[in-house]
Amino acid sequence: MIAVVKDVLIYITIIAAMIVIPAQLGGFSHIFGTVPTGKLLLKAPDTASLNGYSAYATLAVDSALALFLYPHSVTAILSSNSGNTIPQHVAAAGVLVGARPARATRLHGARLGREGHAPEYASYFKAYGANFAVPALFLHFFPSWFVGVAFAAIGIGALVPAAIMSITAANLYTRNVHREFINTSMTPEQETNVAKLASRRGRVHSRAVAHLRHSVATVRRHLDHPDAARAGAGPLYTRVLDHRGLLIGYSVPGYAAVWALIINLVVSIVVSVLVRAMGLKRSEDRTRPEDYLDVVEG
To answer: Which of 21, 55, 155, 226 is deepest in the core (most CB within 10 A)?
Structure first.
């Protein structure tokens, strides 16, 4: 029910934004016409970096891979009536998501603070950067009562999927880790209590990570060349690294999750090779084909 309320609020906000904001800014043609020429395309690779090409490509690839791993996506897919239901809903969702050209006004929201049209928001842009662009647009062009509706839509739009992921991840942990390795004789009541505790811990850890990322981003903004600084610190710990390797300096910007995935794969492969080379006992895969079949006796 909350998801339905979320969708209603979000689409009321989007439809209103698509009608009011472009009209106030001179139409979509004017909005796109004011985009600087240098911002129309991704920055091309040069001799020192792949620039926006690798950043955009890695973000697109990881987003496609992650879709199949989100707990709420897996739950929805497994509960579908048939295989035909999934592409139908994906197609419908694509149309609805694609009908959000109000995002094009984000640039003008940022300009409200930069060009002095709304100096009262300058401190917020300084604190939150471009993330404050959309809230600034609503504050600037809408009455206070509708701003409350829009902000409620933004808030609930973030909380609902986060809650679904938290609950689903907690259930996955309870049934696949805790019951299998910690307490194999759990009662349904105990499963519920463990899942609730895991969900609470997950939310606490998420907040901690969010604050940590903000602190790290703040520190990095004060460093002119953070990548060079990290490489330059290498000789403080070892003399094995050659200076030409440290200073080669070719940058491949990309989505952090892709690099994390690559590191995880490398570690998994290296450890697996070492386990076999050392003659350690290999783990047994107990999965059988019948585990994937819904067998009804009688």
So the answer is: 21
